[in-house]
Amino acid sequence: MAFNSTDSFETYLVPPRNFTKTVVQFVQLCAFAVFVGVVLPMVYFGQGSESQAPWITLTAGGATLYSQIGWTSSLYVTVLIAFFAVTIGGQIFGGPVEATSLRRTLGYCGLLLAASSIPLLVYVVCYCLSSKEDLAGLVALLPANALIIFLALHVGRFVVFDLETKLRALNNEMQRRAKRMTALADGSRGPLFRGLSVTSVAIATAASIPMVVLEGEPNWWGFLATIVFLSMLCLAVISSGWFLLRSAYMDLSTTWAVNWAIGIVIAQLLMLLLTVVFLGQFGVRAAVGNAVFAVGCLMVSVIPRKLQPQWLLNLTINGLAAFSALKTLRAQQSVAEVALADVVKKIQVEKQAVKDARIDPQSMRKSPRGISLPLLLRFIAARKASRDEQAT
User: Fold this and answer.
1) Tens of pLDDT, residues 190-231
2) What is the C-alpha separation between 253 and 243, in angstroms, rounded?
3) Does the pLDDT of residue 2 top 50, yes or no?
4) With bands split at pLDDT 50, 70 and 90, how would you rate the model's confidence at 355?
5) Distance of CA 138 to the CA centre of its chain
6) Which residues are CB-contacts of 326 (< 8 A; sequence separation ≥ 6)?
């Protein structure tokens, strides 16, 4: 796509991110690759007989991979050099939007490729350390992997989004957050700990009553001790439910309800298992009490807030989680508004810099390349001045 006077140089000159962020992301990918490619096989195959000890597993895997290290390293280096060349000169493959997207894709693929070579390196190094004949292979292996990491980090610096993309992402995120805040408007108005404590005692009392009613000679001291014990247990259970529901309310993705429902189903299955165990070990009284306990914890989580009066919203997990999530979302929205204003200001500065260095049609006709050197120098000077003004 040809450059014209209305195009922004920013789409061509999106600055790469610093090495610190790239290294952090690369280390995270390496940790995942080592866990999947080294730790899990070592744990799985390292159990059993002595011949399958973890170290033997690593050296045996390294012996298999040692013969493949030559062409594998060459392939990695070749592909990363190609990624680097395309990343640097990506504009020749399309317009600025396509070039920016291409650089991000290749940058992330380069980081994934280098991270996938780390388990290979671990296996082969362990094998070389255990074999004196092949120990010299490290002389060729380590520099090759260093080159792979070096190229990947340089390519990974281009995993960065331009200002227009950041602006669209911030707008979409703020719109979703605003809708969620509107949906969470009807929530608790009371203290969190008071609501959790009252709810715990109420559920514990309701669960303890069947144990006393169904008993021929009620033991009231045992009844009080059961209430105290179940209250502490219920407080732990509904606190976990409150945290799970609060996290679901703060999740702005479309699968937030599914993630929360999975947690509820798992918790209820555990309660059902406990009910069956209590029925077999302690009889009907314990099973009924556990069932009441499970139903009580479930009801305070799933009753719709619109059906609850305010006094009940102050006590149920649903109302308490909605109020807590609403406060956090409001704070996040304030931070996002500041970030949005900063991005808008940067875009305005870039547009002003481009306007100050606007291309003259006469100079474009005179220059076969469309952009003259004095014009480019003029743009760079205007851009530097605008950034200095922004920094001050």
Assistant:
1) 888 898 899 889 988 888 887 776 666 667 777 788 888 888
2) 17
3) no
4) low
5) 36
6) 181, 184, 185, 187, 249
CA distances from 325 to 177, 181, 186, 196, 330 (A): 11, 9, 12, 16, 9
CA nearest 116: which of 65, 45, 54, 157? 65
Nearest C-alpha neighbor of 11 from the set 163, 168, 170, 171 = 163
Tell me which H or E stretch contains 109. Answer: helix 96-130
Per-residue pLDDT tens for 237-278? 888 888 888 888 888 877 777 767 777 777 666 766 666 666
Rounded to whole angstroms, the Cα distance separating 383 from 125 reads 49
For residues 267 and 207, is the Cβ–Cβ distance under 8 A?
Answer: no
Torsion of CA 282, 284, 285, 290, to 10 degrees: 80
Which helix (H) or strand (E) covers residue 193, if one does?
Answer: helix 192-213
In the structure encoding, which two tokens stand for residue 280, read together? 């077999």
pLDDT band at 369 (very low <50, low <70, confident <90, very high): very low
Say which residue the tokens 């979302």 belong to.
329
The count of other CB atoms within 10 Å of the CB of residue 138 is 14
